[in-house]
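Narrative of activities, Objective 1.

The group set out to show that a structural description can be obtained from nothing but a protein's sequence at a throughput compatible with the screening campaign. Below is one input-output pair from the validation batch, recorded exactly as produced.
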Amino acid sequence: MWQAVVSTQSTGTDELQTFLSKFGLLHHKIEDKLEVLSEESDKKSSLGTMQQLLQQLQLLLNESVASLPAYDLRRSQDVVTSLHEKIAKAQQTCLPKKKFAFKNKKHITTTPVTEQVNQTTHHSKFSKYTAAVTYENRSNETFDLPKSEIYKQDVLLRNLSHCHVRLETVMGSLHCTNCTNCTFSIGPISGSIFLENCDYSVYHVTCQQARIHTTHHAVFHIHVTSKAIIEDCTKLRFGQRSVFYEGYEKDRAEAGLSDTNNWNDVDDFNWLNKEKSPNWEIFL
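Output recorded for this entry:
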């Protein structure tokens, strides 16, 4: 049975208590639906309802980011991330997994089998993660992910090399694993972007939070309403997002992301000193 989402250590203001009450109620509803999903006759409809509740939960959190104490913010973000993963896993279990073909504007070559094997043998924090939509094992290609397939979905990109990828719509979350020497143009993500082993890549991204693991020599043109968190990373560069696509502002509003941009506020879990971490830098 689910447990209370946030046990706050901060002083109980009316605003905070209102947030915790609403957040806890939505969390309760989602967890309850997950518990009885196996007994539902219309699992697709139930999963759709859970996705809608999760979007409401994410919007509530996005609207409250600026006023929440750090402890409550971190706990709430962890809950939303966990629910994204639980619903994605439930969808993979209860519904047939979708297979997609790429519609490439440019196709030079596919990834050799030996390279794919090497990529997947790297240490992977998210190696067992499954998403509603998965694209993987591509090399030297330029492609757009269909908006109809990724809209408000949890998306997983895995084992991409020397690709230029556009995901220009609202998404729930985005996981990138073993994506090297790539460039990404990413629409607003109402939740988090998770990266690991994504060396020498460039990201134009808007999100509520960024979590970056075991990544080196990457560049982020970023709009993040909470902050970026890095771990086991070196040579990362952060600047403000300046490249947009038509309809971007409408998508950002739909994702519930504010004008607040903490692009230069990065937490390095491997650096506990008061001085700034040497593992990242900003550019203007």
